[in-house]
Amino acid sequence: MEQFEEAVLLCSDPTADEDVKKEALLYLKEFERSDEGLLMCISALEENQYENVYVLFHCIKVMSSWLRSRGGELRENNELEPIQTFLSSFYANPSAYPFAVRNKIAQTFALMFAETYLVEWNSFFSDLVDDLGENSDRDELFAQIMKSIDEIVIARDVVRKDEENERNGTIKDAIRERDATMIVDAFVDLIEKYADEDDSISCEVLDVFSSYVAWIDTSLLLTEKMKEMVTGAFSYTSRLGDATTRFLSSILMKGMSGSARLEVISTFSVVEMLEEKYMTLSSQLERNSGGG
Prior knowledge:
This protein has 292 residues and is an all-alpha fold.
């Protein structure tokens, strides 16, 4: 592990000799592909055996790379459980870890989800939603994880192999059947919670939620709870109002019948909300013009 740490620190040192850095980079590539490298990184993460954010990041990167390219092999060798244990530990207290590694952690969560949701970790979403709303770092990490799941598993504009598309279709069907309602409720609760506390979090959650509405059941979007969230979010800050407008646009672009689209417009009072938005913008332009 010491040689691994030295190689990571060399590669991250802008003053290091370029030839030495090339050798260190070659070593890291071999290390990341080796069984020994994976096991050493998992052990280091479990036992907090790292003192540098670059070393932590690269340990997570090794896990992520293995999950992406050799996830099936990890399952066959019963090596997924320690990765799940580390991810759960990170999620329980993200504030204890450097902010710089959270995007990589979110990607690793999504890759782990793709490998395990249908079999070993079918409580994935309920585990994430437990205690949601009690810690802003965890709540933001939840949004990042859900965004990564969309990018890695769900997004339609990503070219994937046929077997991946088949697996991902099965995953989406399982989410619809088991967890879609829970996910929608979690999104709504977070948006409402942070609307007047930290609207940047509400905007982030709304934008992530927008990527899910294309394939979840429309009935989950037409509830009274959803209507209250959208109406409330639209009337808070202008930034949150803009995010709400994007969210409504994503709903209206869903594949649905004309009558269903009209129901969406009626449920969310879209015409009235847009009129309100127009009047607000007009008033702002008039004030700015008068002040000039």
